[in-house]
Amino acid sequence: MLNITEEKTISTDICIIGAGPVGLFAVFEAGLLKMRCHLVDALPQIGGQLSEIYPKKPIYDIPGYPEVLAQDLVNNLEQQIAPFHPSFTLGERVEELERLEDDSFRLQTNEGTEIYCKVVVIAGGLGCFEPRKPAIENLETYEGKGIHYIVKNPERYRGKKLVLAGGGDSALDWTLYLAELAEELTLVHRGSTFRGAPDSAAKVMALADQNKINLRLNANVTSIIGNGHLNACILSDNEKNTEVINTDYFIPLFGLSPKLGPIADWNLNLDKNAIAVHTEDYSTNIPGIYAIGDINTYPGKLKLILCGFHEAALMSHSAYRIVSGGKKPSFKYTTVNGVQTF
After folding, report:
1. pTM for the whole structure
2. Average pLDDT for residues 87-110, to the nearest whole number?
3. Going by CATH, does the domain composed of 3-130+257-337 fall within 3.50.50.60?
């Protein structure tokens, strides 16, 4: 069970920005050295791209797994790090990073959460994911006032009228889940067939056949109506017919695109949209800040999950010297020492 905290002030040894597979494995490597970790991710769940974009995609290059589904890998990593009791802030983006007088760090998220730590590890994959937004006039006016791009708290939608848009796994999965909570749910998709998992698509079609949801295929939300809060969505189909649907919330689920985001303003050495690191420990040009996984770059870099795991291991041994005040880590193989928890 994840320790997802709602505390606004957190103190830890290492703050890991990014809860994708490499960030999760970094918790394991840090835990072996008795270091506490807190992870922050802008997505509402752990797993990064694996969970958000292709949870059912098979992965073939993880050692010991001839084939493993992306979400199963995330689930296994969650189980692997559980003995070290990491804490998480999800659905928030780190906006500010400040170095304090004692060389520790203070980070602040867009929701005002503050994290104090001795080491910062950036494991943000391809960067901070931002939602792909539909081209609708005045869309930004109602963001947070009836328009959401991520389902952070499903209970918010209990007993409400919802319009969801999209045809991928995320749209299908949330339709199946929220149909049980909403007073009325309409799924709008511009195509006639879905891109998501066939089983999920079949279940959504069954809900529509049972009149448990409203399904509008070959249609788009083209405009919105509101007065301080969203009141309705206007749909247009391929025949240019329009329909007004009264709703409390409109949730476009068109996927996410990666952006470097606020990290670009932290005075790190950058090479295009990646952070340059030293390969002996994947440290950046700022002492105490490391970058691992797809977000870093160095000569010979390969953007593979297994390479990120290797980087996490070397990073942790270097970070230990900072957290411990200069002590050298006493490394023992887990086959000999087991997993010693806190």
Report:
1. 0.67
2. 95
3. yes
